[in-house]
Amino acid sequence: MSLKNFIAPTVFSLMMLVITFAIIGIYVDDQQNEIQQKAYSNKAKEIQDLIQTLIENKQEKVSFITLSLAQDDKLKKALLNNNHQLSYDGYLNALAKVSDFKNIWLHIIDEHGRSFYRSWTPKQGDNILEKRLDLQQMFKDPKPMQTISTGIYDLTFKSSVPIYHDKKFIGVFETIAKFNSIAAKLKHKNIDPVFLVDKSYHSQLKRPFTQTFLDDYYVANLNADPKHLDDIKQNQLIDYSHQPRHLPYFVDQQKQQLVTYYELPNVNNDPMGHFFFFYPLNKIETGQLSNNQFSLYVYATIGYLFFLIIYFYQLNKREKTQITEFNQRLTESVHQKTRQLSHQKYFLQNVIDGVSDSVVVYDKNLSITMKNEAAEQLIGLTSSSKQYSHDVNKNEQSRDYLETVTKCLKSAKPEKAVHHFIDQHQKSRYFEFTVTPLVDGSGQLNSVIQLGHEITNYLDIQEQLQQQKNDLDFIAYHDPLTDLPNRVLFLDRLTQAIHQAQRNHDKVALLFIDLDRFKEINDSFGHASGDLVLIECGKRLKKAIREIDTVARLGGDEFTILIDELKTNNVIINVVKKIIKTLSDPIFVNENIFHITASIGISIFPNDGTDANQLLQNADAAMYQAKEDGKNTYHFYTKEMTEQAYNRLLMENNLRDALDNQQFELYYQPQVDITTNRIVGFEALVRWNHEQKGIIPPDHFIPLAEETGLIIPLGKQIIDMASQTISEWHRANLTRARMAINVSAKQLRDNRFFHNLNTALSKNNCQSDWVEIEITESSVMQDPELAIQLLSKLRRKGITISIDDFGTGYSSLAYLKKLPITKVKIDRSFVSNLPQDKDDAEITKAIISMSQSLNLDIIAEGIETQEQQDFVLQEGCQLIQGYYYSRPLTKQAMTEKLESIRLREA
């Protein structure tokens, strides 16, 4: 082959190769530059969004603190009484400990625009309104306001809330916060901020010679890096950021940093703050095209070699010696390519070994074909095997770990999951895995690549942040001394309870509690002792209410209680009595004994108000009425309810006195057999012989005795008197009838009932078969199984049992058949309209028929006319009781009646 034939095509092909390499280089550089610009732009946008979010979050938190503290009653009382002893030092210190609020100031302005309180200085009384345009606007139209402003000290957030008392504007509560915490958060993210206040505010800044300025721009964050101030000045970044068509960032190649800027406008949309953020370029992921560039060079080289091979093959086809030489060159080229591929594989392994995340490639059989060093740790976690494959059924952790890989192989779609592992030290660790399918040139899925990284620390940080949020929420809605709900939370719950009561047509009660003479404790023993007393009172109030109710502390010695799902007013009285009693027990604090009383005001929804504030105001008014009534008492807002409560309390006290003074006596109404006109039994009916009111019927006091539990001692007295009377009549040979004694369900459930009954019978020498126990149908059906056990015990003793008021309840015939009863009494409500009322007549017939089928005695009560007697007799009922035969008589009158009957029969 001639040299001419060799040089010409070689030079030409080399020129084409050089041109191709140049085009590839230009293309890659252009793409790389575009990717870099996009990455810088994205990072600039990310930083700008971050500062915007931090500003909004700061404003929200500052507003939240302002709204919470502006409702404090102590604040309102201080403004109303011109009391300048107000202090929030404790609150600000507690806030600094549990949150990131380190630089917070509180400012209170009274209704005349004068400074009332500043947390940073004792100075007060100067006119703030003349200096503050935003306050002038608020005083014209009082409503919450958020601003970012430059004052005489710094660039600050301000949140201002108007304060009202009885709908009257009395001042403004203002929270002020610096940008320092925002700067700290940015530094934590490797962002060095420089906050500049616009030069137009230069004259407003106090003592400028003690502060840092950049030309006429004030540096708001004092810890700003001075090097960055020089960078802003040298690169003229302020002028650059004001250019009409400027990029959102500036790249300082010399110092390898990205500078992003953000302009903060004031309320008039004029410049207020110029923020510059410096971020290292080496932390920005720009992506690299070097691998692609290398591939393009390889492909170009391969094309170049292919061109030469074809050319020389055609050219030297006729020359065997040249063919041999060409083959030798080709073999060398193949060896070289093999070495290159081997080097490339080695290079690729080094690349993935340099990745901190786990990288594992699995084939269809779940065998590992490639992995990096970081993957070794996960392999040790998920399987004790050190081989490149996993037995899916080997253990539970392996199955969980490979589950995402299996899903990706089946679906040919990317999969992501979080897995929990227990390492060799029994420590919980969490990893996030992303599995992506790998397909060949024909689109066939041959393997998948799994990327994994540990997120245990991230989850721990999330948990800590959530706990901090919970702590802050608790501080915002609870009283810091007693841990009870504060006014904000209480009003929220009260509002919800009102809405629920409106839907369910229920009532809600609000109790306003003020400790009597509590100021004397603070004055005599100090506020520390007073605080301990308040804590103990809060605990006792919580124990005195139901689980569904709420107790809160409004401030000072004032507490409130929400009674939800109120069905009857008796619940209120029971709770109030329990509160007064539990507070009256001595409180021991530091070897001192305190006796606490309270005045309680009560308002009820919807009677005394339709919203939370109105109910609170009316309960407060009722509390003051209780104070005027002598303290240690309660008062309803509604006069009628107060009188009803007093009457009920008076009746209960009188009832207790009547039990102690034996004011109850028994009247006896005979039960008659119509066919023989003979007395076959008596019913003992209790009456209250009041010293002033005379005889009080049972329906006026028995329900109260049932509710208060006094029915137990009252029933004991009745059994004693009734058994004594029937025993005397039997032993005087005046009668052979039984004495029917009414017993309530509460008496039967009393565990001393049988003991008291046996004691009375033994004391009065009364036989069991002389006594009959009457129980109501409704009391039996409250717990039929328990009633069967109790009544069976009575029957075994020889005492007969009758069902009183039969037909008014909801008896089950199946249970009625099981009850050991001997007699059924038809209620007077069915008898009173006989025989005219057809419905009552049919019911009466059915009761008589059923009783006869069960072989039970039956008696009709309330017989007042001859027609009623004739009707029940005709239907098969021979026993009656009622005014037609005799009214209830005293013991003496009934004794005389029995003696006259005995004389007449003799």
TrEMBL record:
Please list the reactions this protein catalyses. Answer: 3',3'-c-di-GMP + H2O = 5'-phosphoguanylyl(3'->5')guanosine + H(+)
Describe the location of the PAS domain by residue ranges: 344-382
Q: What CDD domains does UniProt report for this protein, alphabetically?
A: EAL (cd01948), GGDEF (cd01949)
List the GO cellular component terms: membrane
Kindly list the cofactors needed: Mg(2+)
Question: Does the record carry Membrane as a key word?
Answer: yes
Q: What is this protein called?
A: cyclic-guanylate-specific phosphodiesterase
Lineage top rank: taxon: Bacteria
- Which residues are in the GGDEF domain? 506-639
Q: What UniProt keywords apply to this chain's record, in alphabetical order?
A: ATP-binding, c-di-GMP, Kinase, Membrane, Nucleotide-binding, Phosphoprotein, Transferase, Transmembrane, Transmembrane helix, Two-component regulatory system
Where do the TM regions start and end? 6-28, 294-313
In this chain the EAL domain maps to 648-902
Which GO biological process annotations does it have?
Answer: cellular response to nitric oxide; phosphorelay signal transduction system
- The PAC domain covers which part of the protein? 415-467
Gene3D superfamilies reported for this sequence: 3.30.70.270, EAL domain, PAS domain
Q: Where in the cell is it found?
A: Membrane
GO terms for MF:
ATP binding; cyclic-guanylate-specific phosphodiesterase activity; kinase activity
Which EC numbers does the record give?
A: 3.1.4.52
Q: Which InterPro entries match?
A: Biofilm_reg_signaling, dCache_3, EAL_dom, EAL_sf, GGDEF_dom, Nucleotide_cyclase, PAS, PAS-assoc_C
Native source organism of the sequence:
Hydrogenovibrio crunogenus
Any one Pfam family match given in the protein's UniProt record, by short name: dCache_3
